[in-house]
Amino acid sequence: MSMAPALDVLDRAVKGEAGALSLLERTASIYVLDAANPSLQRTYGCWDFINQALTEVERYEGMAQTQQNQIDLRGHVQLLALMSRRAARRSPEADRRLIATCLSNARKYDASNDEANNFIEKNTQTRERVMGRIAALVFDFSFHNKRLGGHNSGGSAFSDHIAIENLCMIVAANAISSGPQETEQFVLEWIIPSAENLPPHAIAAIVFHLGSEASGKTVPVGTGDAIKKLSEPIFCHVIVPLLTQALGNSDLNEMNDNMIVGRCSTSQRLVALSLRALEQWCSVLNLEIVELKRICDKSSQGIIISLISDALYSDLEVILDASAELLESLLARGLRASNMVGVRQSVECAKTAEAAMDGEGKERDALLTELSCAIGLQRHRFTRVDHTGHTSSARCLVRVAAAVAVASKPLFASNEKHLLGGMLDLLLKAADHPSVHVCGISIEALSSLLNSGIDINDRLLPILQHRVAWPLNLINETALATTNECGASQIDNLDCEVDFHQFERFREHVLCDALIACYDNNRSRFVEICCSAVENICNGAVGLEDSFQLEAALFCLSSVAMKASKTAGLVTATPASRAAYGKATTHRRKNEKSEKSMLEECTIHDEYLARCVNALAKTTGYATTNPLALAQMCRFIGKYSSWLVKSPTQGVLDAGAEVALTSFNLAGGALSDDLSAKAIIQEMSISPYAEAATALRNILSRSPSHFTTPQALVALAGGWESSYTSANANRIINIEDREALCSGICRVLASTPPGEWVASLSSLARPTIECLETVVKKADAIGAALPGGNRPEPNISLQTVLKRGGDEIRLLSKMVLVFNHAIQDNSKTLKNSENNGVGVSSKFEHPFIDVLRRTWPCLSQLAQNYSSHCAISVTLGSLLTQSVSIKDAEKDKLSILRELCCMARIVMDSIVKGTETATLSPILEFVAEVVTLHGLAAENCVITKNGSSTNYCDEARHVIEELLLITAEAVGAVVGDAWSHPKEQKQGQSPFEGSPELRRIERNSPEALSGLFTILTACIKECPVLLITMEGGQGSSWEDETMFNQSVDAAALAVNDKEVDAARSAMI
């Protein structure tokens, strides 16, 4: 069957044709003038299209009754309604202005003002006629009495409940946009008098959309006052009667003939829509529950709370969701109102305000008690809902209970506490619900109650310990397939409706907050329960199920580590420190703890945590093969490392370090070879290897001198070798993990006598140097096999090799950094040792010099051939920066610095001429560090006349000047005119024609310009005279200018740069 024009456009738009959608968009926004026939001129716009489309839909449905294979028009009507809403939200006055604009813009239009007004009046009449047709459709009982479902059930497209609601939305939008007077007239003269005679569903939908449209930002002035004036008649004469009728006409859970499978009945939909309308009006009027009850009490016998409570007995999500939304918004506004009591009392008369707020508070408490009792009665039904698998219904019911419980916090301390027990039982049942979406709502509410001092700790903590455990359906199937000792019957296979990462976030956020609240409620009891659980599990052979329980118990302890480790560490603190800490942590307790009780609490923490660590050091079985349990063990050790180094318990620090080191070796060894374990590790956000490396770093860094014994050093050396074994085998290990381990070991080596530093550091760097030599050989072999010789094009194999080389250079940088700090920290010790002739010779050299000499050939070759690759340039720049302070005691102070500057020049030249995406920033940081350390000496050389400066000052000036010139040319080649902007010669020729050819890369590098400005800032601080007097080198693009003038010109250009870093550094 062919379609008429308007219906055809809708059909094409429903199918997603861009042209049809664009036509509908423009039709709803503008008017056009049809002046083809001067005697029959007319305007055409949205209301004409809507009127025509309604006619064509009715005609099509009438013709389709005698034919087959007709099209279902429900989607067409819904799309037409959405288009009509946009036009209805435009006020009649705005429509008139659009018509006037259309006529004024028309080229062929030439008529009088009367004719123009006639066009405007006709459009107004068309709008009123269309709105009349839509209202007739909305209030037509024939569309409401037919079975819902549209074409497939033999009804009209207008009988679809979505279409009806959208048409009601148009009627409401038109009433609101017409102004407050028209809105009042529409409600008081049409809706209120006819509420009992019109279709209830249409009345409820119009009331809902009146509230929704009134909350918009573009409503006419005075709409809010009109809505406030209409609130009482709407509540008492429309919403309450509709709710009463709908709740009395149908069982809320019954599947009757008025509904089809998967949908709810007319009465059930009416209940949900009425509740949504009530919530929308309360939101617009900013009403809380007390104010709502007061308004409804005037004419509806105060049954509104009872009606809301009755709606909670439904199992349908649509009703429970509407009830939850209503109560959540009402109670949230009530909490905000109660929090404003102090503000009101400071503004109003104190006695009057106190009496008014006291009366309102009592009324609110009475309402909350009534709601709490009603929700408490749902706890028995909640179990039935749980077993039927209605997760959505359970979620909505828990939303209501959570909102009421949070609002009822003051009642838990009153004599009405016993009336809240049922609601509390429901929340605790919900906290153990299999669905994360259900239990998460409940746990957040219970956490809030705990934070308010309500004692439910003993009931909630076991539930949280159970919820923390990983469900087996989230564990990789490969891991389960390899172990047949534990089936799904032994571990709850919870359908938690989330994936691995979502459950991980649920634990880290929702459950962590609840565990912290439980800990704050009773600290000693929390630590005792969790540590005892760990100890009991580790005492025997740990099976698969036990390993997940162990992981859960350790997660509970790790969640409170920040507070628990500090409390345990105070066992050796002074009484004053414990008293101060106790005073700071008793804000939820009625009385401040005494010194004796604080010492007892600290002792309990230290004792049970020590027993827990010792038990972990002895555990075997699945605890060491389950990657989740292994990672949690290391996280626990890492988070409690600050306590471990302070604990007076003998051997607990060694036990913690043993757990971390053993886990590190397992994670990099056998665990990485287990396919099932690797599958789980790939899903984890932080691998066991990373957790173990972090734990080792924390322990070694906090107590390095404790691990300087030969036995400890041998064990650490084994761990360091193990990291290279794992890295060489391409196992799951990141450079950040290796850096963490390297940092911890270097701190231990730095705690040994200074005379042993050279040998210790050389031994530590041996595998790193060997690896670098291998990298150079492989890179050269790959480069020789590719065209281009030593400068091969990008190649995946080469990039992989160079990335490994960059990782090893990062480790060297970490070694230099740690020992730089060690030299600074031990400067007094070194000086005393030198004076006493013990441990250090008078010509002491940096312990990294020997390593630098051994690695220099490899580093030079990488810099010469591969520094155009980002992996090499970045790490080399970092190593050079850390090595600036190294001095050779047997030569002059700047001998090593000259070698470093030579390498920096090679790297900069390779980056400028290379084709890779390497950046100059790391090398520029090296230059800035050189200026910072030696700029003052160079400045003294410039200021001092007649060569009276020292050789060191002369050499420093020479090095810095040469380095600055090289850097400026490199940056100029990268950033182009932003640094070396061209200037015309007398004949208008470019000044570059006399300069040596320097290939300019067509790319913008604001980070390089920012780095250069950082160097110049350092020059201004350390050697300003040198900067001002230094001229450009011969052959440079700015050889006739000083460095200072050139930098000022470039900074002036860069201030307006779109890159923030470049503009900021230029201004500085």
- Let me know the average pLDDT: 81
Structural class: mainly alpha
Please bin the fraction of helical residues: 55-70%
Shape: globular
Termini gap: 75 Å
Give the beta-strand count: 2
Counted by DSSP, the helix tally is 49
Radius of gyration of CA atoms, rounded to a whole number: 39 Å
Beta-strand portion reads: under 5%
Low-pLDDT windows of residues? 147-153, 255-262, 342-351, 480-495, 836-843, 981-1004
The largest β sheet comes out as:
2 strands, antiparallel
Order of strands, main sheet, comes to 1-2
Q: Care to describe what's here?
A:
By secondary structure, the chain is mostly helical. It has 49 helices and 2 strands. A hairpin with a 7-residue loop joins strand 1 and strand 2. It is globular and about 100 Å long.
Describe what is shown at a glance.
By secondary structure, this protein is an all-alpha fold. The chain contains 49 helices and two strands.
Question: What key attributes describe this structure?
Answer:
1068 residues; mainly alpha; two-stranded antiparallel sheet; 49 helices; 1% strand
Element layout with pairings:
Layout lengths: L4 H10 L3 H12 L2 E3 L7 E3 L1 H19 L9 H15 L3 H14 L7 H26 L2 H5 L15 H17 L2 H12 L8 H15 L8 H27 L16 H20 L3 H9 L6 H8 L5 H23 L1 H7 L2 H27 L2 H9 L3 H17 L13 H11 L4 H16 L5 H12 L8 H5 L18 H22 L1 H17 L4 H16 L1 H9 L5 H10 L10 H24 L8 H13 L1 H4 L7 H17 L1 H4 L1 H9 L4 H15 L7 H19 L6 H16 L6 H29 L10 H30 L1 H10 L12 H18 L3 H13 L12 H19 L7 H23 L7 H25 L30 H17 L1 H6 L13 H12 L5 H8 L1
Antiparallel strand pairs: 1-2
Helix pairs in contact: 1-2, 1-3, 1-4, 2-4, 3-4, 3-6, 4-8, 5-6, 6-8, 8-10, 9-11, 10-11, 10-12, 11-12, 11-14, 12-15, 15-19, 16-17, 17-19, 17-20, 18-20, 19-20, 19-21, 20-21, 21-24, 22-24, 24-25, 25-26, 25-29, 26-30, 27-29, 29-32, 30-32, 30-35, 32-35, 32-36, 35-37, 36-37, 37-39, 38-39, ...
